[in-house]
Every structure is written in structure tokens, then in C-alpha cells.
Design brief:
- The chain is of the alpha+beta class.
- It folds into 2 domains: 4-71 and 183-342, 3-Layer(aba) Sandwich (Aminopeptidase); 73-167, Elongation Factor Tu (Ef-tu), domain 3.
- 25% of the residues lie in helices and 30% in strands.
- It contains 7 helices and 19 strands.
- The chain has helices at 4-15, 25-37, 151-156, 184-202, 268-281, 296-302, 327-342; strands spanning 43-44, 50-54, 58-68, 73-79, 85-90, 102-106, 112-119, 140-144, 164-167, 172-173, 178-181, 209-216, 235-239, 242-243, 255-261, 264-265, 285-290, 308-316, 323-326.
- Strands 1, 2, 3, 12, 13, 14, 15, 16, 17 and 18 form a 10-stranded mixed beta sheet that branches. A 6-stranded antiparallel beta sheet has the order 5-4-9-6-7-8. Strands 10-11-19 form a 3-stranded antiparallel beta sheet.
- The longest helix is centred in the middle third of the chain and has 19 residues, at 184-202.
- The chain is globular.
- The two termini are 16 Å apart.
- The structure holds zinc ion.
Length: 343
Amino acid sequence: MINLEYTLEILQKLCTTPSPSGMTSEVMKIIESEFNKLGMVVSYNNKGGLLTYYKGKNQSAAKAIIAHADTLGAMVKEIKGSGRLSITMVGGYMPQSIECENCVIHTGGGKSYTGTFYTTKPSVHVHQDARTQERTIEGLEIAIDEKVFTKKDVEELGIDVGDFISFDSRFRVTESGFVKTRHLDDKASVAIILGACKYMKENNIIPEKDIQLFITNHEEVGHGASHGIDDSVAELLCVDMGALGVGQNSDEYTVSICAKDGGGPYDLELRNRLVKLAKEIGAEYKVDIYPFYGSDGGAALRAGRNLKVGLIGPGVYASHAYERTHVDSITNTAKLLLAYMQQ
Ligand SMILES: [Zn+2]
């Protein structure tokens, strides 16, 4: 089985490295260096997506495995006269999920400043309607951790409209095995892929054919895998989170196998094969449907690719907020991924 300690260590490194869609070069360097340690050479497409191969007995990859390293984030929309920043979202999430959250503003000049997202009425002692204020992105602002009182003060720091903002991930693993952090979507899957490659290399496992591995960096904005998959690839497995909640079948302990998402059904033959494989190797799994969810598989298909697409991943509670999964879910996902890679 994969080295869980290594996988969690990488996961922490990835989750604590800012990478909102559009600002991913730093996190990609970390991933590149991990692949390099395994003797795998990487390249990038023009959009900054990372491509590599797990070499098989025959060159020319028939299948590809994808996960995304970009995350949700924000951007400075306006510098207010008060010295606060209004924001625009990068990716889709509930404004209340970042309320009172710490963040970093990354300036164009390469500086960074910390701050906190507050509503415009953040204190119950001051605002009678603090509790009932409608939660919108317009109702949130950043208080920068600097003594700034005017727009000019903020501009003098080098902060400008268009600067990226990343969220404090608050990564932690409990003794009971829960992993709580922002950005489990989809950094948990990237860490699992690295863990799986490390296991296969260390055990000299060589698949029949090359496997193309693609770490995309624009999934949260919808076009991550619209370019980059080799022409020879006929089958694509996305490793991305299972979304949990009332009415959902998947959970924080198993590997989720997606039957259908907001874009329609995943390939039935591939799904059935993944279920069969999970049963054979004893990976605990749940088949589920995510009605308000899309993946890089959809991006590839909409870009005109002729592919069978499947999706597996760890079950993530409170997705696109402060997320939680369990090491059991990571382990079961890794088991199924490893079996699939060796097929
Ligand atoms: Zn995702």
C-alpha cells in the first residue's frame, strides 16, 4: 500500500502553498520536484498544466490520469476609500465559507500581505443586523493587517486591483485520522497520485503501456483539461473528490466512484470496471451522483475529445468550504488507483 506518511506530508505541503486558479506556478514546482525524485520528467502546456508519464512496457499512452492542483481563491476587485478591499471570487463557493478567515494578498510586485475576510458588519455589539445581514461576496471585505486608512495608503503598499488572494488552509490531521483543511479538492488526489507513483517505482511495477499523468491548473474555472491529453489516449480517469451530504451515498471513509455529475453520466463500462476492480482488491467504495458538480473529464469532452471518462476520489465533507476527509478514504482511493494503474 502507499506510504500514508509521505502522502500526508505532501498533502500538507500542497495545501499550505497558495494556488488559486491562475496563480499555480509555485505549487506546480513542488509537484514537479516530487515527480523528479521518482525519476519522472515533466513538461508544461502553455496554460501551466503539468504533464508527465508513468512509463510502461510500451510507449504511447492509452490512458490518462488527471487531478487538479488549482484551488478556490479570490482577487482584489476594488480598493475602498476606507482602506478595505472588496473582492471577486475565483471559482465557486459560499461567501460565508470564508467569513472571518485569514488570507494572503499577493501583489503584482511579488510582495504579500496578510488580512482577514469580514462582513461589512462584523460585530454583534455594533450592528444590530450583523447576524441577519445577507451573505454575499459584495458584503465581504478584507481588513489588511497593516495600518491603512485610505485608498492611497493601500496603493502605497503595492496592492492593486487584480492581485490574487489565497485562503489560509488551516491544515490539520487529528489523532482519529480526520484530515481537515481547505483545498482537499483536489490536492488530496494529487497527493494520492504521487503516493501511488512512489509505491509503484519502489516496487518496480511497470504497467503494460505508458500512463499519461496530467496535473491541471484551471479546473475550478472550468477548462483545466480542455487541452493537454495525448491523441493516443482513449480513456481518462479523473481523480477528484466525492461530494458528501444529506442524500449522498458516498462518505469520508470510502473511495467514491461517480456515476453521474452535473454534466451527465460517466462512461458505464469504465465505471463497471472500476467497481469490479474495487471488489476484487477489497477497496471499500461507494457509487454516487453529484448533481451540482463538474470535473476535468467534462472539460476534456466539451473540448471535443473522444474519450471514455471515469471519476474516482476521496469523499470530502463541506466541499469548497473548510473541508474534511478521513485517512481511510485516502487509503481506499489509493488502493483503487494503484489497481487501475497496473491494469
Ligand atoms: Zn475538484
